[in-house]
Amino acid sequence: MDVVVEPGIGWMELNEYLEPYGLFFPLDPGPGASIGGMCATRCSGSLAVRYGTMRDNVISLKVVLANGDVVKTASRARKSAAGYDLTRLMIGSEGTLGVITEVTLRLQKIPQYSVVAMCNFRSVKDAADVAIATMMSGIQVSRVELLDEVQVKAINIANGKNLPEYPTLMFEFIGTEAYAREQTQIVRKLVSEHNGSDFVFAEEPEAKNELWKARKEALWACFAMEPNLEAMISDVCVPLSHLADLISRSKKELDASPLVCTVIAHAGDGNFHTVILFDPNQEEERREAERLNHFMVHAALSLEGTCTGEHGVGTGKMKYLEEELGVEALRTMKKIKAVLDPNNIMNPGKLIPPHSYTVRVYRWEILDLYHYAQLMCNYAKCQRNKVNARVFSAEGVLPHEIE
Ligand SMILES: Cc1cc2nc3c(=O)[nH]c(=O)nc-3n(C[C@H](O)[C@H](O)[C@H](O)COP(=O)(O)OP(=O)(O)OC[C@H]3O[C@@H](n4cnc5c(N)ncnc54)[C@H](O)[C@@H]3O)c2cc1C
């Protein structure tokens, strides 16, 4: 089951079109997101835990390259072992390698039946532990979302609700009626074994929508709490087994900050978001928001995770690419970019950090004349091309070094 679309269509419009056919496209990022932007950012959403991300749901693309070539990246076949995977090269390239003009998407059947459940915990760690236990139990949930107590408070303020202001997990179970109910009861037991309480679930469409509405409007709810502030929204992602550790460390730091910070996580994927509210006119608040973001990224990287699970690196997080992937991977990305877009006309300044040339000379005195000449020649070339260049020795930066 697949569909061929142009990149400007929104995922919500597409799903309205598909509904009469009993089909849907199972990615649900921001309400206004278009399929082209979703491909370019390798986006996902709350359903990724069941259906995967854009990487898993795009069959092929048509892309216009910088030199005008129009490339079809794959056939319509469900699987293929033919050549390099150009589809996946383009997915997540943030418009830096070409312009996507056509997309073939994999579709899913609308589930027969679903149950939505909600429960509370004393700590975010307990909530994260249940998300992990649920995934480890093999239950095929379609959504596992975690909200901390600050986020629940924001939802209460924004919607005039009276939800218990504790760390909260929300689940969706799908399948046949019997299967969805059976999964609900298994998770209910897991919740009670991990200090969870107030387990409620809904099966009627209206009641289910009411429960999900709280989650879907979480970001806007933050602004209801602090209408005059701006939000720095950041996300990181770690292997599921490290999620509880990441959340505990980050939550401690966020709670200690003078800024209001909320936590929302696609917990079944190990994907953790924060909304950090700050006054853009107060420089120290902006710096504090950046510090918290930096802290979270480093916590995730130290736990074998990534600096961004969903939102791409754009310009803000490209500085973390080398730390996350290593210089060799980054160098390979730069080579791909240079070959496909030699004049740097495709989203210049995004994703690929500016070139730099660093040479570390551990024992300067053993460098022979030939290697010294080669080094200086490369250094001069960098300067001619306005590329940052630094030459280090064990004793520090050389006196004639200019950045
Ligand atoms: C309330 C809210 C909730 C969100 N939740 C999620 C979530 O759960 N998961 C998630 O992953 N994201 C989420 N997002 C982020 C958002 O939905 C994504 O950033 C989205 O994938 C981008 O789509 P867009 O159409 O807005 O793209 P744009 O912002 O317009 O573009 C994004 C990038 O893609 C490039 N691009 C756009 N079209 C093309 C094209 N045709 N060819 C090549 N490059 C192109 C642009 O140049 C740009 O670099 C959320 C956002 C909001 C506001």
UniProtKB/TrEMBL annotation:
Enzyme Commission code(s) on record: 1.1.2.4
Gene3D superfamilies found in the cross-reference section: 3.30.465.10, 3.30.70.2740, Vanillyl-alcohol Oxidase, Chain A, domain 4
GO biological process, alphabetically ordered: lactate catabolic process; methylglyoxal catabolic process
Annotated compartments: Mitochondrion
Cofactor: FAD
GO cellular component: mitochondrion
Root EC class: oxidoreductase
Keyword Oxidoreductase recorded: yes
SUPFAM superfamilies named in the record: FAD-binding/transporter-associated domain-like, FAD-linked oxidases, C-terminal domain
Record field: transmembrane: none
A Pfam family of this chain: FAD-oxidase_C
Keywords: FAD, Flavoprotein, Mitochondrion, Oxidoreductase, Transit peptide
Highest taxon of source: Eukaryota
GO function terms (MF aspect): D-lactate dehydrogenase (cytochrome) activity; D-lactate dehydrogenase (NAD+) activity; FAD binding; glycolate dehydrogenase activity; identical protein binding
Domain FAD-binding PCMH-type: 1-110
PANTHER family to which the protein is assigned, alphabetical: D-LACTATE DEHYDROGENASE, D-LACTATE DEHYDROGENASE, MITOCHONDRIAL-RELATED
Family to which this protein belongs: Belongs to the FAD-binding oxidoreductase/transferase type 4 family.
Protein name, entry field: D-lactate dehydrogenase (cytochrome)
Organism: Sphenostylis stenocarpa
